[in-house]
Design goal:
five-stranded mixed beta sheet, single chain, 487 residues, 15 helices, seven-stranded mixed beta sheet, binds adenosine-5'-triphosphate, alpha+beta
Length: 487
């Protein structure tokens, strides 16, 4: 639901987009050619931040669980994979065109946006349960074209539009060479199910996780990196015995909720959305939604996919995908699957929005705002910035030495230009949790603070003197004990 914001210092999507561009998190792809719709490039800080989110997810989902293993399957899978999974027949969105200006819309979103703005107009049922005819009737009765504004409401019928990109492998464009860019990463996990069971002697219940690119020919792109044609998913498929699936579904729902809390998202900014209308494969489904500046929107889906995918691959490939349960008298069954499917790019945006603050740090009643990202130190693109108080008198050399030692363990930055205050602000804006300053005491033999540096905490702005010999331990400790700022 769209939000109205009156506080000039509140986080807005425009401010996030501008920060991302200014500080090298995200740029529009092919900007010099006017931009490529629905495509974004991740800059020097963005790539670090994105990788940190991915690593945090991998650690949380794979390395912390003895019963979850990883996979990196190919983007190109045999085209029958997508026939089996139901994507060729069902993976589509309802679209509608304005016949006057030719603008194209997703019919369901057009209605949702309209109802958000006009809560008094109620289509009488959840949008995802409306038929094409019901959607068309509602749009015709209520919605002027958002692009040309025409009150004539000359729309086409609502039609389904398949979201898969397709092409042909090799020089001959015939059906046998047909290839799809995968619209979700998980099908590679299903087609490799038997390989994983056999090669790694996996016993049910167990999970397989992977992170990778997915592609969807979205009808419209909206809200920066929220909805794009090319994006990354962090997915885990947990295979279990039929009948145990409801309990395991609840377990993973809890775990995924805790992940977002652990990495700094306040619970008040998270909510569950239960699906009224289920996808063709699902028995139950919930979305985790985050309170973006544009309102609560999905960042992750948790689905009970039943035995749908493995059964379909058995039927289509002719290969038996059943599991023989040696712990249950060699009983054979098709495992059920609980899926957790998070968008890496939407996580990126959610963690950024959550961390963003324009904080008044003025004293004596004067206003002085700093922009700060209160990112979890394990997600922040830079962990430690080392700053010499001055460039001269050997301070720069000493600061470089301190930085080089820290670089072995942390992502570091070195900055010697401008006042220390300005340098702190620059680091605050990109979420660097620790700034280490080398001053004259650091290098003056006989000084009480010889061999120490100051460490400034991004969130509290407090400074503490720490011995250089204890610096690495101090930072590790501070990372382990970090708590989100309550706002
Ligand atoms: P939506 O309803 O927003 O289109 P979805 O329900 O189709 O999303 P899933 O198929 O459940 O999404 O995919 C799992 C996750 O992948 C989503 O929660 C989201 O974070 C991410 N995702 C899906 N489509 C896109 C996209 N076009 N751009 C960026 N991320 C996406």
């Amino acid at each position: 639901m769209a939000k109205t914001v009156s506080d000039p210092h509140a986080c807005t999507l425009d401010k996030i987009i501008s920060l991302c561009k200014r500080r090298g998190f995200v740029y529009q792809a092919s900007e010099i050619y006017g931009g490529q719709a629905g495509a974004w490039d991740y800059g020097p800080l963005g790539v670090e931040f994105k990788r940190n989110i991915q690593n945090a997810w991998w650690h949380y989902m794979v390395q912390r669980h003895d019963d979850v293993v990883g996979l990196d399957s190919a983007i190109f899978q045999h085209h029958k994979t997508w026939e089996a999974s139901g994507h060729v027949a069902h993976f589509s969105d309802p679209m509608i065109d304005c016949t006057e200006c030719k603008a194209r819309f997703r019919a369901d979103q057009l209605i949702e946006d309209y109802v958000d703005a006009h809560p008094e107009t109620n289509p009488g049922k959840p949008v995802d349960t409306m038929t094409h005819e019901e959607m068309k009737a509602f749009i015709d009765a209520n919605i002027n074209c958002p692009t040309c504004g025409s009150k004539e409401r000359k729309y086409t019928a609502v039609r389904e539009f398949n979201l898969m990109f397709k092409t042909f492998q090799g020089p001959v464009a015939d059906e046998a060479q047909l290839i799809y860019l995968r619209p979700e990463t998980c099908q590679g996990i299903f087609t490799d199910f038997k390989n994983i069971v056999q090669s790694n002697r996996m016993k049910i219940p167990f999970g397989v996780a992977q992170v990778g690119k997915s592609f969807r020919n979205e009808i419209i792109f909206k809200n920066f990196i929220f909805r794009t044609c090319e994006f990354e998913q962090m997915e885990m498929e947990y295979f279990c015995k039929p009948g145990t699936d409801d309990e395991i579904f609840e377990k993973w729902r809890k775990e995924r909720w805790e992940f977002y809390k652990k990495y700094g998202i306040a619970e008040k900014n998270l909510q569950w959305h239960h699906h009224d209308k289920l996808a063709h494969y699902a028995k139950d489904a919930y979305d985790v939604q985050y309170n973006f500046p544009i309102g609560f929107e999905e960042i992750e889906g948790i689905h009970n996919r039943t035995d749908f995918d493995l059964s379909q691959h058995t039927k289509t490939s002719g290969k038996d995908m059943d599991y023989m349960d040696q712990d249950d008298g060699n009983k054979k069954y098709t495992p059920y699957v609980i899926e957790t499917s998070a968008g890496l790019n939407r996580n990126f945006l959610a963690f950024l929005c959550e961390a963003y603050e324009e904080q008044n740090v003025g004293t004596d009643g004067k206003e002085d705002y700093r922009t700060v990202l209160h990112l979890h130190p394990k997600l922040a693109p830079i962990t430690v910035a080392v700053l010499p108080l001055m460039k001269k008198d050997g301070l720069a050399e000493k600061a470089m030495e301190v930085k080089d030692a820290l670089t072995e363990e942390f992502v570091t930055d070195y900055d010697q230009s401008g006042t220390v205050g300005k340098r702190y602000r620059r680091q605050d804006e990109v979420g660097t949790p620790f700034c280490v300053t080398v001053d004259y005491d650091t290098i003056t033999e006989g000084s009480e603070n010889f061999g120490t540096v100051t460490v400034r905490d991004r969130d509290t702005m407090e400074q503490q003197r720490v011995k250089i010999s204890e610096l690495s331990g101090f930072i590790h400790n501070a990372i382990s004990n970090w708590k989100p700022v309550v706002r």
